[in-house]
Predict the structure.
Amino acid sequence: MIPDKSRVRHIPVLLNEVLSGLEVEPGGWFVDATAGRGGHTKAILESGGKVIALDQDQDAITELKLKFDQELKEERVVIKEGNFANLLSLVDKERIGKISGVLFDLGMSTQQIWGPRGFSFLKSEALDMRMSLTNEVTAAKIINNYSRNELYEIFRRLGEENLAGPIADAIFRARAIKRIETTDELVEIVVGVYHQAHVQQKIHPATRVFQALRIAVNRELENLRQGLECAWIVLRSGGRCVVISFHSLEDRIVKQFFLNKLRLGEAESVTKQPIVANRVEIKSNPAARSAKLRIAKKLKYEQDAKTLF
Ligand SMILES: C[S@@+](CC[C@H](N)C(=O)[O-])C[C@H]1O[C@@H](n2cnc3c(N)ncnc32)[C@H](O)[C@@H]1O
C-alpha cells in the first residue's frame, strides 16, 4: 500500500549514535549537510548545538524554514539550499575550519520517496528523480537518450544489476516505438525482462534499476566524494565527520576516505566497523535496515582557508 505523503512520519535514523558520534557540545556549530525533514537538525539543536542546515531539495528547504522559524530568529540555525559538493561556498568563510561536526545522512527523505518525483517504483509518476529541480538531467532523459551501453553501465555499476544487458536492450527496443515517460512504463519493462529470464528474487525486480538511475541523475557518488573533502576542510581540529550511508557503493567511498585520512595522519580515529541499527530500531523504522554509520575525528587543520577561494 502507498502511504499518503503528508502523513508519513519521518524518523531520523541512528539518532543517538549520530549525537554521540558528533559529540554535540553547547554553542558549537554543526553542519547538517542533508537536513531533509530536520530530524537530526532538531536533535542537535535540542542538545545545545547550532546548525547550518543544508539541502539541495527546494521543498525540503521550505519545510525546514517553517519548522525552525523560532531557531532562525534566535540565530541558532542557518538554512541554505545547495549541494553539499559545494559545502565550502555554503558555509560562511569565517566559520571554515571552526565547525565542530559535519553530518551526512545520505539517500532520500520520506518526503522524496513518497512525493511526485518518481523515486518509487510503487507509484505511477513522471520519470524525474531529481533531488534538486535545478538539475537539468532527469531519469526520463537518461532512459530515452543515453546509448544502450551507457544504460548498461549505469545499471551494472550503480545498481549492481545482473540483468543489466537484457534490461538495457529492452529499454532500447521499447523507446524506438514510444518514449518512456513514467515509472510504471519502466517497471513494466524491467519486470518483463525478469519474467522472460525466469529469475525470481526477494526484492522487487525494479529495485536496482531505480537505485542506479537515482544515483546517476543526482551524481550521488561524485557529490559524496567532493562533499567529504569539503567537510574535512570546514571541520576544526578534533571535529567529527559522521556519515550514514545506505548502500555499499556509498559506504565504500566513506570507508576509503576515512582510512586515507587515518593513513595520512589527518584523522585521530575512525570507526573500524560501521555502526548499524539494532533490531528494535529496525522494527520501528524499516528505513534503518541498511543504514551504516561511520565516524572520523579530525586531527589537525593544515589547509589555509584563504587558498580555497
Ligand atoms: C535521508 S534524507 C535526510 C533526512 C534527515 N537527516 C532528517 O532527519 O530529516 C537525505 C536528504 O539529503 C538531501 N541530499 C542528498 N544529496 C544531497 C546533496 N548532494 N546536497 C545536498 N543535499 C542532499 C536530500 O535532498 C534529502 O533531503
Remarks:
- Residues 8-111+220-299 form a domain with the Rossmann fold fold (CATH 3.40.50.150).
- The first helix runs from residue 15 to 22.
- DSSP finds 14 helices and seven strands in the chain.
- The pocket of S-adenosylmethionine is lined by residues 10, 12, 34, 36-40, 54-57, 60, 83-85, 105, 107-109, 131, 223 (CB under 6 Å).
